Amino acid sequence: MKRARPTPRKSVPAATSRRLLQAVQPAIAAGTLNTSQLLALQAFDVAFRAGSFKAAARSLNLSPSAVSHRIRNLEQALGVALFVRTHRAIASTAEGKILAAATGRAFAELARVGSSAAGTVARQRLRLKVLPMFASAWLIPRLAGFMTRHPDIDLAIESSSRNVDFELEAFDAGISVGDGTFEGMTAHHLAAIRTTPVVTPSLARRLNLREPRDLRRATLIHVTAFPAAWPLWLEQAGAAKLKPARTISVDSFVAAMQAAEQGAGVALGLEPFITERERQGMICRPLSLAYPTGSYWLVHPPGAQRNRALQVFKRWLLAELPTSGGTTRFFS
Predict the structure, then answer these.
(1) Separation CA 265–CA 256 (nearest Å)
(2) What are φ and ψ of residue 212, in 5° steps?
(3) SS3 state at 230
(4) 257 CB neighbour count, 10 Å cutoff
């Protein structure tokens, strides 16, 4: 009796086998958006930051109706309202604020990368956002030395009383003020800040400023971006309830210092950046009280470690500031 021969298995062609084993490729995120959607997201983000369709139109070189049309199409595609429109203004909805957080991060990162890629291989560009007092009293007077030593690096410096926000702004790094807690950032300590009243010598004599309570006879110069500066100093000096004769408000410590130098009143000077003005006799310290109020920090995203221009600038900056101590903090 003959045994039945086993039925031979049919071979699967190699091409078919590969097709069966190959996973479906994931969709490319950039490919899921068409040109009109990308332009609509751009119009939305600019309108959100600018606060109006008219201002966004000027920024994008479009008509207000074109901006409005792009955003209307985006709202229809998403199925939600992004703005509440009134006759003369717009206000973002909760959904609009959520989308703005995402578009702000995305466009800021694209701008940073695009700015770096735009330079030639031979030259590199570093974009910095710096607090005004640090810029005017320390950084700018030393820029010529940096540029001479590093002719292949171009610096773009913007001065602002507000710390850099890397989720919304296309800067490579910033010199900010704080206690060193910068979430998700790498921070390098530069210099401790102490505040002390400064005034012209003639005004100090006229007001007879000898102790904190004497400031009640003075005009105190406030900085709008740091409204707690004077109250904190007065509290530490034991004069929390002091009411000055008058107040003036300006937008930065640089402006406050300029006003004090013109005899307009008493400003809070920031050590260590008032020594030169004091040496020149432009201002004096009528009271011997100075209190710590944070520090200056060089702050940048962790990924910026690969930015050669930033690394060169960082080494130069830390070497020029002997008070920095080289402290580095990483926050996740």
Answers:
(1) 9
(2) -50, -40
(3) helix
(4) 27
User: Do the beta carbons of residue 285 and residue 196 sit within 8 Å?
Assistant: yes
DSSP string, 10-37: PPPPHHHHHHHHPPPPPPPGGGGS-HHH
H or E stretch covering 131:
none
Residues 123-179 pLDDT 10s? 688 999 999 889 988 999 999 999 999 999 999 999 988 898 887 788 899 999 988
C-alpha triplet 218, 220, 221: angle, nearest 5°: 145
Domain 124-332 has CATH 3.40.50.12160: no
Give me the amino acid identity at 73: N
Q: What is the pLDDT of residues 278-298, one digit of tens each?
A: 999 999 999 989 999 889 999
Domain at 32-116, CATH from 3.30.450.20, 1.10.20.10, 2.40.330.10, 1.10.10.10? 1.10.10.10
DSSP 217: G
Pairing of strands 124-130, 153-159: parallel
